[in-house]
Amino acid sequence: MGERELVKLRELKEAAHALFVRGRFVQCAETYARILRLVPKDPNVRVRHAECCRRAGDRQSAITSYREAAALLMEQGCESRARGALRAALELDPRDPILLSDIARLGQPKAQATALEDERLYTGATGLFERLDARANKAGPPPPPPAYVLRAAEETPAPGPLPAAPTIAPLDVKALRGARTMALPPRAHPAVPPAMRRASPSIPPIIPGRLITQPPVPQAPAGTRPAGATVTPVPPAMRPARSTAGVPRAGNATAQAGGPLPLAPAPANGAGASHAAPAATPYRPELRRLGPNAVALRVSPQARWVIIRSDSPLELSRAEALPVPAARQPPAAYAPEQPPAGPTPASS
């Protein structure tokens, strides 16, 4: 077929498709008839011509085209498609004896006929479209596996029996329900030597508003105490508190700078004062300034620090005695401040 005929065939197919889309089936059937004059051995064009004739109402022309398409498909080895074309023609005339005989001659469809038909259609004499597995089958059996594969297969041990599962004793539910409580082992406490027990001081809790009482000083045995020595009683110490006065007093620079507040020594009593036992005061209040608006306070070296912060700068002053009622006023633990020397202003 020349180039001019191929161009004409392409134009006719495009025109037939456009007529079929528009629903002009009579003109479409005539166009496919002209195409069949150019390619009379094309089964696809025969099927399309039969479909256009069926929609146009020309049953006889449609049946003829279906039968010719089935014959062409049988020549190409496409039995399933040929059987479908005959069934489409039989729907137009179910009592046609020729169609019934053709369908009976074809018989029942074979299993997987489509793959065989495709292989017959696209396998040529040159072998260009021949499948690779067909060439392998023609070449002969595959080569034997290498020797190391055979040795590995021979050395593979046979799987032995699985290990037996350990036996688990049955659980006695009634015994568990009967036992209401479970005895726990006593908790082991670390053994503390007696020396450490005596050395560790016991700090009583500090309650604001109450006096701090000091424990009595243990007296020395009579054999070790020197002759004439006496024990000086120590008055109870008061908990130092920040004064409410806005202006600090003179001579209190050491208290404002921070540091432990010194205690006044107890007066000596008698001739053996040099051999008297020193007063043991485990409570030594300490006050430290951490910044302009923060101070730290603790009542003894064993106690924790209490940090006091303020939004404004704090002013510290040393108080000689706590502001307590006169009935509960204890003896002063600090040295009284000497009044300033000079004339007393006359009261008006």
Secondary structure blueprint with pairings:
Layout (H helix, E strand, L loop, with lengths): L2 H20 L2 H14 L4 H14 L2 H18 L2 H14 L4 H10 L6 H10 L9 H8 L7 H9 L17 H6 L15 H6 L53 H5 L1 E2 L25 E6 L2 E5 L7 E4 L39
Antiparallel strand pairs: 1-2, 2-3, 3-4
Helix pairs in contact: 1-2, 2-3, 3-4, 4-5, 5-6
Unreliable parts = 122-130, 245-258, 270-278
CATH superfamily of the domain at 3-110: Tetratricopeptide repeat domain
Helix content: 25-40%
Summarize the main sheet: 4 strands, antiparallel
For the CA atoms, what is the radius of gyration?
Answer: 61 Å
Q: Approximately what portion of the residues adopt beta-strand conformation?
A: under 5%
CATH architecture of the domain at 3-110: Alpha Horseshoe
The total count of helices amounts to 12
CATH topology of the domain at 3-110: Serine Threonine Protein Phosphatase 5, Tetratricopeptide repeat
The first-level CATH class name of the domain at 3-110: Mainly Alpha
Write out key terms for the chains shown:
348 residues, mainly alpha, Serine Threonine Protein Phosphatase 5, Tetratricopeptide repeat, four-stranded antiparallel β-sheet, 12 helices, Bacterial transcriptional activator domain-containing protein, TPR-like_helical_dom_sf
